Amino acid sequence: MKTKKMKLDKKALMNLIPDDEKIKFDKYVSPFINFLNSVAGSKTGPNHIGQLSELFQEFISECNQNNIKPSKQEWKKWYLNNQNVMKHSTKLPKSGRAAFKSTILEIWKNLIFFKNILSKQINKKVVTKWVEDLMFTKTWQGFFLEYPIVSFVCKQICKDNDDINNFDRTKLRKSCIKEEAKGIDYVYEDIGLIMNFQIKTGNDNENFRNKSNFISKLPDDVYCCIYIKNKQKINLKVFLNKNEIYSW
Q: What is this structure's pTM?
């Protein structure tokens, strides 16, 4: 018998849930509360409300043993009456009712905090400043730091190459639109150097590791400069022919 291929329709599946078991929210309410929860440190995570997947399996098992038909109301009652929902974690024991109430309280506290910020500290003037900072200040600061680093790398390359004269700052330019489309950020015209300047922030090893696939696809004449700026330091690595040639 030939296998019949079918597509699952999420909407159709959700329609199988009785309406009285669905909780409906106005648009944006649920995503916003979800945001507040994440800011609060995920108060609906296992460290706060227990490992729900494990607890739910216990609930189903008890329903089967006691010949009880599982339902949302039965699950809610079982959880709230549970004296230790933290049994699957290393945290101190906590009842389901206590976990439920503390989660509501923590998210509500964050809502009050954000309401105060929104009503007292954020107005059109602040939004204007934020857009200006994003579009102009950060762009300028990024280029302001980027250019001297590229100059520094080019100077080092010129110094280590016997066939090249001293580094000439005027010969270093920003890439044109066609070059930029290829991932090229800077060109040093005298020697045909192409600087592919990758700016990353965060964990050094992780970011350098994430660039390995990118570096492996570069043409042999492309110098790839990866720069990582953290709060207290700047790390630089330069690659040519897929090999690391400089590290600072």
A: 0.54
